[in-house]
Amino acid sequence: MDKMKVFAASASGRLTDDICEYLKIERGRASVGRFPDGEISIKVLDDVRGSDVFVVQSTCAPVNDHLMELLILIDCVHRASASRITAVIPYYGYARQDRKDEGRVPITAKLVANMVSAAGADRVLTLDLHASQIQGFFDIPLDHLYAAPILGRYFREAEIEDLVVVCADVGGVKMANAYAHMLGGGLAIVEKCRIDAKTTRAGNVIGDVKDKNIIIIDDMIATGGSIAEAAKTLKGKGARDIYVGATHPVFCDGVVERLGSAPINEIAVTDTIPLGERGDGLNVKVLSVAQFLGEAMRRIHFDESVSILFDAWPEATLF
């Protein structure tokens, strides 16, 4: 492990400390600051020549600052002669701009992938991309993990009876079906109509939810509109207790008011994005992905299989 170096930019410091605790190594030293005009200043304080370097950074808000920190830190260790650089991006921003759904719009998720490669990254490790096809946007190896082992274990230990797993829109059917199979529950779908970037409207419910306990599964919570509307619709259809499980707590302005007014018992998220005070006023349970990512990083370092983690359901004892 003496050739393994783990660095963090400002968005993922706490998560990186937990990863390093699992790996039993010291976190790499780097300074991240600003020049007087606002430009980002980064200096790596440890020798990385010939090292296997992991740069951990979620591109969460402020997205552009954190993205630039990631790119500059990758470039920094690249020019310091690291032998291999892995960009560990627990939350991959701009992932919702993954296609041209109307004229004269960019595919920014592909642009960001190009920038990460151009900065000097040799491979990428990420968690629950908003769209799986983003894996193909990279011309370097990418390991795409899922938070199902973390969230699934938590809900399984809760022993929720008469369970139905619900996806808030048809795009999440595959994910919700995996959770339903894992937890031994039924499956239902809430039809969603998006009005604009901030507003959605829930429609029909496909599946039986009357007198059932519900877990709404999604990859992220941004505005909270989809989940709040889905929860209200499910309650109107006779659902009992409603829980929410999501990997990335993006939590934009107004999310506390939207989710707080919805009939939701508890929200479980992971620490891919530092929640801070943005969840105050909600019953939020934060689950750590540090050991999960740390094990993946250890396997990458020793050229071991990472795909075994895809099958690490809650009963597994890998981490």
Topology summary:
Elements: E1 4-8, H1 13-23, E2 30-34, E3 40-44, E4 52-56, H2 63-79, E5 84-89, H3 108-119, E6 123-127, E7 142-145, H4 148-158, E8 163-167, H5 173-183, E9 186-194, E10 200-206, E11 213-221, H6 225-236, E12 242-249, H7 255-260, E13 266-270, E14 284-287, H8 290-301
Parallel strand pairs: 1-4, 4-5, 5-6, 6-7, 8-9, 8-11, 11-12, 12-13, 13-14
Antiparallel strand pairs: 2-3, 9-10
Helix pairs in contact: 1-8, 4-5
Explained architecture:
It is a single chain. The chain is α/β, with parallel strands linked by helices and 319 residues long. The protein has two domains: 166 residues, Rossmann fold (3-Layer(aba) Sandwich); 140 residues, Rossmann fold, CATH 3.40.50. It contains eight helices and 14 strands. It has a seven-stranded mixed β-sheet with strand order 10-9-8-11-12-13-14, sandwiched between helices. The chain has a five-stranded parallel β-sheet with strand order 1-4-5-6-7, sandwiched between helices. Strands 2-3 form a two-stranded antiparallel sheet. It is globular and about 60 Å long. It starts with a strand and ends in an 18-residue tail after the last helix. The C terminus is likely disordered.
